[in-house]
Amino acid sequence: MKKIVVREQWCLGCHLCEYFCAFANSGLDHMVRALQGKTIYPRIVVEGDNQISFAVNCRHCEQPLCVAGCISGALRRGEDGMVKIDQEKCVGCGTCILSCPYGAIMPNGKGVAQKCELCLDNTFGEPQCVQHCPNRAIVLEEVDAS
After folding, report:
1. Were both Cys, which of 17, 42, 83, 107 would link to 22 (CB 3.0–4.6 Å)?
2. CA 14 → CA 59, 60, 62, 141, distances in Å?
3. Percentage of the residues of the chain whose pLDDT score is greater than 70
C-alpha cells in the first residue's frame, strides 16, 4: 500500500502542503478563489518550532483506533488498507480526533471530522502535498503492510 512518508529532516516548515491540501479538497479549480480570505482546513498540518518541523498526516494504521472509537460508523478501513471517513455519517462527536495517536484527524469547519485520504477523492491524481513540497520532505512510497 502506498502511504505518505514525512522526512522531518527535510521539512522547511513552509506550510505549502497545508495550502495545496486545502485547495485540492476545496472542490474549486482556481487556488486564489478557493483560499483567498478564507480560513483553510487542510487535512495535513505542519507542527514544530524553529529547529524542526514536520507534517502530521494520517498513517492509515493497520489497527486504527479511530475506526474502533467511531460511534457512528463513519470511519472504516477499506480492503486497500486506507482509513476513510464518510462525512455524511459523521456526527462530529470528536471521538476519532481524541483517539488518533498521531493527531491526524481534525475538524473540517463544518462540524465533522476530516483526514488525509491521499487525494483519491479529487481530480488531482496524486497527493498535492507530495507534488508541491519544495524540498521533497513529503513523499508517497510503497510501504510494507507488515
Report:
1. 42
2. 21, 24, 30, 22
3. 97
